[in-house]
Specification:
GO molecular function, one term: N-acylneuraminate-9-phosphate synthase activity
Protein name: AFP-like domain-containing protein
Distance between the termini: 38 Å
Structural class: alpha/beta
CATH architecture of the largest domain: Alpha-Beta Barrel
Pfam families: NeuB, SAF
Shape: globular
Strand order of the largest sheet: 3-2-1-8-7-6-5-4
InterPro entries: AFP_Neu5c_C_sf, Aldolase_TIM, PseI-like, PseI/NeuA/B-like_N, SAF, SAF_AFP_Neu5Ac, SAF_PseI/NeuA/NeuB
CATH superfamily of the largest domain: Aldolase class I
Number of strands: 10
CATH topology of the largest domain: TIM Barrel
Amino acid sequence: MDLKNLKSVFIIAEIGQNHQGDIVTAKEMILEASRAGVDCVKFQKSCLEAKFTRNALNRPYNSPHSFGSTYGEHKRFLEFTIEQFKELKDYAESCGLVFSASAMDIVSFDELKQLDLQFIKIGSGDTNNIPYMRHIAKQNVPLIVSTGMQTEDTITKVYNILNDASANFALLHCISSYPTKVEDTKLNYISRYRKLYPNISVGYSGHEIGYESSCLAILMGAKILERHFTLDKNQKGSDHCLSLNPKELHTLVDKVRLIERNPNVIQLSSSVMSNDLLNSVTKLNLFESPMGFITKACQPNNIPRSIFPCELMCKQKLGKSLIYTRDLKKGQHIVESDIGVKVSEPNEIPAEFYDNIIGKVLMRDVFYDDPVMECDTLDNSM
C-alpha cells in the first residue's frame, strides 16, 4: 500500500479489543464493518511481557470494564494469538477488506510482519518509543502512526527517523482522551501537520462521540480516517461508549464518500478558515448546527503540538517510559542494551528521552524491569 499517494480517503474501522476476547464476535464485527463500506478493519496485538513491566501487569484493576482482577489478567483475556490473527485476516480478506493491527511492542510487530499485512499501525503510546521507531523504520513495512499525547518535537523526531529511512508512512492527528470533547479535538492540527510534513499523507484518528469531527477532518484534507467500532455501545469495555455502531459507521462512510464526490468543498490550504468549513458543511448538509460545532472543534492556532490536559490521564496510565532490561551495579556506564521502553508502574522518565540516558553513570544498583529515575545517574538532567 502506497500511503503517500492514496487515491481516496482510507477508512479504518478500529475493532481494537471491542471483540470481548471472542473470535466469533470479532468475525461478526468484520462482517458488519464490511457492510458499512469501510476499507479496513484493525485490531490490536500485544506481547504483554514486552509492553508492560511486572508491576504494571500486577496492579489491581478494579473497574466495571475489567475482565480480570489485575491489569495483566484483564489484558490477557482480550488477547488473540498470532494464529487467530491469521484466521481473522483470511476472513477479513474474504469480505473484501484490508486487515491490519496495531503492534504495541517490538515482539508483536515482528509477529505481525510475518502475516504480510498491507500496513501496520503504531498507536500513540509508542510514537515516542525511539528505539522501536528506529527498528520499524528499517523493516520495509508501510506504517500508519498516531500522534496522541506527544509533543511536536517528538512527532518531528519520529517523522525524521522514518523519512530519513525512506519509509512508506503516514501520520494521524489524534487526541488521547476517551471520549474526546468537541473542544479538545483540535482539528486545526491536521492543517498544521500537512504544512509541516508535506510529502506524506496526514489523517485523523478520532475518539469523540459522533461523526461530525470526522467529517470536518476530511474537509480539512485528511486522507486516512480511523474510528473505533462496536456492535453495542453498552458492552463491558471502556472503548465501547465512544465507538460507532454499525448504523453510525455506515452513515459516516456515506458522508465521507459524499465529500469525495464534491472535491471542490475540501479545503486544501494550510490555514483552513471556519467560514469555508461552514459553507462546505452547509452545502452538503453533513450535520446540523455546524457553526457552533466548527468553532469548538477547529480553534485557530499556530502553536506547536503539546501534551494537552485532557490527555494526561491516558499518558499516566498507558504512556511508555524507560526501564532497565537487566540488573546493573552502581558505577556502570549505561549502554543501549541496558534500557528498554515499557508501560511502567510507576511511570517515570518518558520514552522520548532514551538517547539522553545512554552513556550516563549509575549512582545506585538497579534491577530488571525497574523504571529509570532521574536520581539514578551522575548527570540526572533529562
